[in-house]
Amino acid sequence: MDLSVQQLRMLREVSLQGTIAAAASQLGYSASAVSQQLASIEKQTGVAVLERLGRNVLLTDAGRALVSHADVILIELEKAQAAMERAAEVAAGTIKLGVMESLGSTLLPDLLLDLGEAAPELTLQTQISNISIAIDEVRSGTFDASFILDYPAVPAERDANLERLLICLDSFRLVVPVDHELDGTVDLSDLRDRPMIGPPVHLECGLTVTNACRDSGFEPNLVHALDDYPVCLKMVAAGAGISLMPDLSLHSVPDGVRVLELKDPFARKIELVYRKSSADRPSIRALVAAVDRVADRFGLDRG
């Protein structure tokens, strides 16, 4: 049996994503290429590693056993890569970074400039990350690092094999139409029965806002459940309601709205996550240092 690292990565990604198509998309292959490689595993070993259920797939017992060994093998390979990079002491190569939209439109341009100056031989590739599986994507090697959101209502998973760097505490503000009666520093209880705009409660951000309102003794009157902050801002400007939104979503506030402080503010955490096995790589050290510098330059609340 002579399995390749590529095959192990593919099988592990399928175990995370649940479908061959999703795994192929994350790894940058076609679905047919992934299917062929997985079929090759089964041909080489004589053992089925996948059970197909419609469009979804499940790992067999043999598949799960192989993935557990793949995790160990890929971690050791990363340690070997880190050792080679340390010997060269040059931050070079390519880093794949998972990002979210709010950071992509604020910190990311400055991060690219900073990293370009500090480590000109290093290439940074970015991709919008699905918040719900960002940690899995770092753990699996899909990303070398990723920004994640840690909400008080739904704390992000802790993993002893991952490092986490706090980028900022992203506090929520109240956004109201420019001619709204509320002004100054506002108590959350003053929002009782007022029409509100924001993410639905089944999303982490929506649940965080809902819990904050409940702690103040009322259920939010969510008349427009929208998972798009720029759209929410436009709806507020149009007078459709008020909204509780995190700072990083307020980098570009349209005319017709005011941003107010809360008497008892609450916040989500934005963190950078990367594998401990890669922490000594000069390229990862360069990325972490650049993120630190940019966050400081933006004057973010570092906790």
Would you summarize the structure shown here?
41% of the residues lie in helices and 24% in strands. With 303 residues, it is α/β, with parallel strands linked by helices.
Strands, helices and their partners?
Layout lengths: L4 H13 L2 H8 L3 H15 L4 E4 L2 E4 L1 H28 L4 E7 L1 H4 L2 H12 L3 E7 L5 H7 L4 E6 L11 E16 L7 E2 L8 E4 L5 H12 L5 E5 L3 H9 L5 E4 L10 E6 L4 E9 L6 H16 L6
Parallel strand pairs: 3-4, 3-5, 7-11, 8-9
Antiparallel strand pairs: 1-2, 5-12, 6-10, 6-11, 6-12
Helix pairs in contact: 1-2, 1-3, 1-4, 2-3, 6-10
CATH H level of the largest domain: which superfamily? Periplasmic binding protein-like II
The beta-strand count equals 12
Helix content bin: 40-55%
Order of helices and strands: HHHEEHEHHEHEEEEHEHEEEH
Oligomer: single chain
Instruction: Report how far apart the termini are.
Output: 51 Å
Shape: globular
**How many domains would you count in the coordinates?**
3
Going by helix content, strand content and strand pairing, the class is alpha/beta
- Average pLDDT value? 88
What can you see in these coordinates?
With 303 residues, this protein is of the alpha/beta class. Helix content is 41%, strand content 24%. The protein has helices at residues 5-17, 20-27, 31-45, 61-88, 101-104, 107-118, 134-140, 204-215, 229-237, 282-297, and strands at residues 50-53, 56-59, 93-99, 122-128, 145-150, 162-177, 185-186, 195-198, 221-225, 243-246, 257-262, 267-275. It is globular.
